[in-house]
């Protein structure tokens, strides 16, 4: 920004468009910094919220034989790490999917990706029940990719690509896939397991049960490296090809990243509805559509949103817990309705 200002002063006063761009960057950085500070404070507070009474003094004693210290190390820290990784990764996955499909109401939860991953888990449990978690996760990833590509094929064949019709088709497609998963789960007595996969919950997150989520953290970093290419693909095939971007390779590669992130999160903590839809929309409304610029703020905001919902899930019916997927679903559903009404008012 300083270099641009110096260049502008050498060649004359900065134009109004440059000033607007600088102001928007400054506003975005300010919002991201405020969200990060709020996330740090909220994360610290969440470490000491729960049924077991754990205080900072208990942690400072560093006595591994103490009950409070073991609760902190075995449960509270892994739970916080899982929340931050899952929330940020699913929000970024939603941002990438919305950019690639060029529709603000498309996300893993409204495109059949999450439902397909759940179906893959049911199939893996039925036919490969004794297999490792990595094999089951791989099958879920394959089903998620297949479901996402099938949804993309349906969208490309649609004559009316209204901004609302496309996600409605995705929701109906996801409903069909979820019905198939429910049928198989009912037939093979896996309904309880299926309910755990479709309702996100961090209450069972312990050390040794969440480490797969570090994979989605790495995938989020990979997404940042290819963010500019995703932005170009989101501008259309002709625009991307003219700038030397391999359109199909970037498009399907991005969708594979989204499918992998969705499947891993479903395997470890279950489905978190509307997360990948609401957070990217709110962030891009204030910071623009450049994926590289908005990706860090999207990740921070997604982690903060899930963390706040998790704290609510622990305190609403204390000492019992409400699944965090229910809290996110209610809050995200309200924001989703607002976004739909807002888009309709602008359209009219």
What would you note in describing this structure?
It is a single chain. The protein is mainly α. The chain has a single domain, classed as ABC transporter involved in vitamin B12 uptake, BtuC (Orthogonal Bundle). It is 75% helix and 0% strand. It is built from 15 helices and no strands. Helix 2 packs parallel to helix 14 and helix 9 (213-225) packs antiparallel against helix 12 (247-268). The longest helix has 35 residues, at 67-101. The radius of gyration is 21 Å and the shape is globular.
Secondary-structure map:
Elements: H1 2-10, H2 16-46, H3 56-60, H4 67-101, H5 113-127, H6 133-157, H7 165-187, H8 191-198, H9 213-225, H10 227-233, H11 237-242, H12 247-268, H13 275-287, H14 291-315, H15 324-347
Which features does this protein show?
0% strand, 75% helix, mainly alpha, 15 helices, ABC transporter involved in vitamin B12 uptake, BtuC, 348 residues
Order of helices and strands: HHHHHHHHHHHHHHH
How many domains? The number is 1
Reported for the largest beta sheet, the result is:
none
Q: Care to count the β-strands?
A: 0
Unreliable residue runs = 1-19
**Helix content percent band:** over 70%
CATH top-level class? Mainly Alpha
CATH architecture: Orthogonal Bundle
Helix-strand category: mainly alpha
Task: Calculate Rg over CA atoms.
Answer: 21 Å
Briefly say what this structure is.
The chain has 15 helices and no strands.
């Amino acid at each position: 920004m300083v270099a641009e200002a110096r260049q502008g002063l050498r060649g004359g006063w900065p134009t109004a468009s440059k000033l607007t761009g600088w102001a928007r960057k400054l506003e975005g950085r300010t919002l991201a910094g405020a969200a990060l500070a709020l996330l740090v404070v909220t994360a610290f507070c969440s470490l000491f919220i729960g049924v077991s009474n754990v205080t900072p003094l208990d942690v400072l004693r560093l006595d591994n034989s103490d009950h409070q210290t073991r609760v902190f190390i075995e449960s509270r820290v892994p739970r916080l790490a899982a929340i931050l990784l899952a929330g940020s990764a699913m929000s970024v996955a939603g941002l990438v999917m919305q950019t690639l499909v060029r529709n603000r109401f498309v996300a893993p939860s409204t495109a059949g990706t999450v439902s397909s991953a759940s179906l893959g888990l049911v199939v893996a449990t039925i036919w490969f029940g004794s297999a490792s978690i990595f094999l089951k996760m791989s099958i879920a990833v394959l089903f998620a990719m297949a479901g996402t590509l099938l949804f993309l094929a349906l969208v490309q064949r649609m004559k009316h690509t209204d901004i609302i019709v496309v996600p409605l088709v995705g929701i109906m497609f996801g409903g069909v896939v979820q019905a198939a998963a429910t049928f198989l789960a009912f037939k093979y007595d896996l309904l309880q397991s299926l309910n755990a996969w479709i309702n996100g919950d961090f209450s069972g997150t312990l050390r040794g049960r969440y480490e797969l989520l570090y994979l989605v953290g790495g995938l989020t970093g990979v997404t940042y490296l290819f963010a500019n290419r995703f932005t170009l693909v989101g501008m259309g095939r002709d625009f991307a090809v003219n700038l030397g971007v391999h359109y199909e390779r970037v498009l399907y590669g991005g969708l594979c990243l989204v499918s992998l992130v969705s499947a891993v999160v479903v395997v470890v903590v279950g489905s978190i509805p509307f997360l990948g839809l609401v957070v990217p929309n709110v962030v891009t409304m204030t910071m623009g559509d450049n994926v590289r610029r908005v990706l860090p703020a999207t990740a921070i905001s997604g982690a903060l949103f899930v963390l706040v919902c998790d704290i609510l899930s622990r305190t609403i019916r204390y000492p019992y817990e409400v699944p965090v997927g229910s809290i996110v679903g209610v809050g995200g559903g309200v924001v989703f309705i607002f976004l739909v009404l807002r888009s309709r008012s602008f359209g009219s």
